[in-house]
Amino acid sequence: MNAVQRFIRSRVLLLTAAILIVAMCLSVLVQGQSQAALNRTVDQNSRGLYDILVQAKAGSGGVLMQPEIANGQGGISFDQLDGIRKLSGTSVAAPISLVSRVSQNLESPRLDAMDYLGFNAGLVGTATAGEPGGTDPSKWPAAESVLSDEAKKYRMTASAVSSDGQSEQTLFKSMAEGSLGKARLIEEQTAGGKSIRIAGAEGETGIKFPAPAGGSEHNLFNLSVSLPLAPQVTESVVAVDPVSERALLGTAGDFLAPLEKAPPADARNAGAIGRHFESLFTTGISMEELEEGPDFLGVKLKYWAPLMTQYQQAKRTGQLTADSQAIPLIVRSGTSLDLKYSVKIEEIDDSGNVVKDVGTVTRSLDKDYLPFVSKSPFALSWPGSQDYSQLLGNTGNFSQGLYNPATWSTDFASAPKYTDGSTAGNGAVDKTATPGEWVTVNRLPEKGANNAPVDQTQREPVDERSYRESLETGTKVAAPLAMVYGTFDADKVQEAAGDINRLPLGGYDPAPMTLTEDAQGNKVEDTELKPSLSATGLVSQSAGAITDYYGLAAARGYEENASVIDAVRVRAKAPGSWKQSQPEVEQLADEIRDMGLEATVVAGSAREDANIFVPGYSKDGAGKESALGTVTQSWVRQDAADAVSGSLTGTNITLLFLTLCGAALLTGASTVSYIRQRRREAGTLRAMGWTQNRIRSWVLAEFGVGAALLAVAGTILSLVSWNLATVIVSASVLVLYAAAAYFAARQLRHRDEVDQEPQHDERLIAVDSPLTFANRQLSTNKFNTISLAVAVGVFGAAVGGLIALLIDIPRAAGASALSGLAAASVALPSIILALSGVAVGLVLTLVTGRFELQAKRQYLGTLEAMGWNPDMLGQVRLFENALVGTVALPLGVVGALGIGLLLAPYAALWAALAGLVAVLCWIPIATKVVQ
Fold first, then answer.
1. Which of 804, 837, 805 shows the shortest CA–CA distance to 911?
2. Which of 443, 483, 563, 670 could form a disulfide with 326 if both were Cys (CB 3.0 to 4.6 A apart)?
């Protein structure tokens, strides 16, 4: 017979080679699918809204970039911006800068108690006739009130509480007493006829909180009690070029369209614009204009009333000068600031004892709050009240807005600074925030509305830790006037920025912080932190408003073309994924660097949670400072795509290599064990005069057939996958198979053996139990025992290595959001690949165990004839496999540990444990299967 016929006849060689070839095909297929899924995941999530971040100097975050790129550092001129836009590879170049902080005194809070008097022609007249939404006088409901006809005495306790998300702080608690009752209509005779006025109940004193709060008064619909002033609210403002910003955001940036129509720099005088809106009342304003807002240079200014009232107030107080400019703004809708205002209402007797608890009403700043606009954000309603002011239609809805203009300041406005700490195994870098000065909030204004001094002892000022520095300003700063053009939704902007590949826009996209550990390093329930009242703390929310660069110049006092641009976000014209566009993006970045600017390529980046330790967060009455703990915030990991792709590709290839090379080693062990069965044929051939070399060649020819099949399979797989890794792994499998074949052939060399055993050798083992018989059989056939033990040990080591690689995938992928997504995409194929490797290894060890099956059946038959029952025979098989497993155990555990230390050091112990479990599991499986 020729070598092919002998190879087929051997069955064992054919079976092991077939198993190895099938394993190669399946493993390469699964690995290819895994790699394709990885590449697809990385490509789809690695290119954000822009490709290059340009700054005057690089940030201090290293490979982790903090979200506040609009940090007030400036340094980029408009000439340089124009130069970037003229580069051939630039598609969009959108500048952004931090302008300042803006503090706003909200309108005095009030408590409205329903005291609806019904329709009265003397008070209402024909005000509702023809009004959009106005109610016909005949349909007005009857009078209704939550107050009694007779004045009763009440005690009101007003308080404000702020929270940073972790703990609450009472800012003030103020109390006032007085009597209140249902309003009454009084008709009086005057020179011109009869007049009707609204008066309080008989004996009503009203309720008056300390100045600057007003008193209480009745109107047609309510009794309004003026409450203590709420704390100031501070926001940040950023500047953009609305045209390029819209190009960057796409349709998500349409909210900036009104800002494109803002007047030029020389047409923004606050006095002139204020006088224009005052003239609307002189020339007349239609109800349609009241509802939609008057047209101002092509924009319907819905929020024109706050501008007018703040202009009038600033003019009266002398804040407005000839140099004051109007600043067009797009303001954020809603706020994440946690500020609650409550009023507890109690009915009391003349001695001050509580007769009845009327209730407590609370209101918070919420999604309806608009910076620079919201009128009466703390308008509370007496329990059981209903608002009847809607009966007047749009006239009743006319809202003047905030009375007092905001205060603009660049103190403590810049981005926080951090220092690097330790680096975790997955590449995550710990940060420590750098504390700044203490900022005092919760102060009352120096004077009230009537210019009377305000008692400052009513409330205790609160110190908040600032983590920011002050910004530079120009030489000519005049109080600006806010001019609200529209609103934007910060959450929708964040959605437009993407998820995995989210890049910071520069301040008007929120970047919340979550507390994860306390100051002692103990894990706590994840708590999202809230911004501080002063807006100078580490935690910030989306900017309260967006303006243009003329607005920045007005707020910061610049008159010339100063270098005030903090960052420019550049999108390259290069199409395709981050990998396809990488050469052109890098070329564009180099051209920008040649202009003397720092250009950071962020294509291929991904968001990553940074762990930030926050020291000096609070202090007690004695001035002792305390740390907050550790917070997480979404930063940007540069080159995340390269890192994730490289590490997980390496893991994929290593899994493939370990699976197939482990199978090849097991095939070799099986081959070496099997070749012992060929010694009888070799002895016959030697008796016929064949030389040792000729016998080896005769056997090697059979192995050559298997090697040829493996070579053909490897070549086909390499051509199909067109992957260098497949070529290397296929070649490694072929080399291992050939080495095993050569080693096996060498076992055929002639030895003189003596079959007769000494009859009185003390080393003979007495057979008195299944265990001793199994021990004797294995000792007698040491070569096959060692071969099988080596195969089982290799199986255990391979299983340990595969498990270690699987466990190490999340760490190897990294800490970015892309890492998690990419790791999830390759998890299932990797598990399938590892399980296939385990299954192939198990099958090959079982095949190795069957080589002595015929001889085992013979001696088990002899034992059965000697009277051994089936349980004892089963114990013989179990003890044989257990003893083999005992010999294999050190090799499996140590081998798995070594592979783990080499390939996945962080999972080495898991590898050793997996190797131990694999060997232990092999014992009952082999006992059950090989019978």
1. 804
2. 483
Buried-exposed string 548-566: b where 16+ CB fall within 10 A, e elsewhere: bbbbbbbbbbbeeebebbb
Distance CA 809, CA 821 (A): 12
Tell me if 896 sits within 8 A of 801, measured CB to CB: yes
Angle at 190 between CA 189 and CA 194, to 5 degrees: 55
Give the span between the Cα atoms of 50 and 91, in whole angstroms: 10
Contacting residues for 204 by C-beta, under 8 A, at least 6 apart: 151, 179, 180, 181
Beta strands at 216-218 and 206-207: parallel, antiparallel or unpaired: unpaired
The pLDDT value recorded for residue 396 is: 38
Contact 642, 582 (CB under 8 A): no
Positive or negative: CA dihedral 109, 115, 119, 123: negative
Within the chain, which residues score under 70 in pLDDT?
A: 1, 11-12, 58-62, 121-134, 192, 281, 283-287, 290, 375, 393-404, 448-450, 474-476, 662, 665-666, 668-679, 747-768, 774, 777-778, 780-781, 783, 847-860, 929-931
Which residues lie below 8 Å from residue 910, measured CB to CB, with a gap of 6+?
A: 800, 803, 804, 807, 900
**pLDDT digits over 773-802, tens only?**
767 766 766 767 777 788 788 888 888 888
- 594, with CB counted inside 10 A (0-12, 13-18, 19+), is exposed
CA–CA separation, 170 vs 166, rounded Å?
Answer: 14
Closest residue by Cα to residue 106 from 337, 430, 397: 337
Per-residue DSSP letter, 607: E
pLDDT for 38 equals: 85
Nearest Cα residue to 663 out of 15, 33, 36: 15
With residue 176 as reference, give the H or E element that holds it. Answer: strand 168-180
Query: What pLDDT, on a 0 to 100 scale, did the predictor assign at position 763?
Result: 53
E-only strand ranges, 672-713? none
Q: What is the pLDDT of residue 393?
A: 65
Question: What's the rounded Cα separation, in Å, for the pair 55 and 509?
Answer: 19
Of 84, 59, 83, 81, which Cα lies nearest the Cα of 70?
59
β 216-218/222-226 pair status: antiparallel
The structure tokens listed for 829 are 């194929």
In 47-138, the DSSP E strands lie at 52-55, 64-65, 90-104, 110-116
- Quote the pLDDT of residue 400: 47
User: Is the CB of residue 897 less than 8 Å from the CB of residue 912?
Assistant: yes
Q: Which residues contact 491 (CB under 8 A, 6 or more apart)?
A: 510
**Closest CA relative to residue 359, chosen from 341, 345, 340, 348:** 345
Measured over the CA atoms of residue 118, residue 124, residue 125 and residue 129, the dihedral's sign is: negative
For position 62, what pLDDT does the model report? Answer: 64
Round to whole Å and give the CA distance between 819 and 598.
27
Rounded Cα distance, 729 and 735, in Å: 10
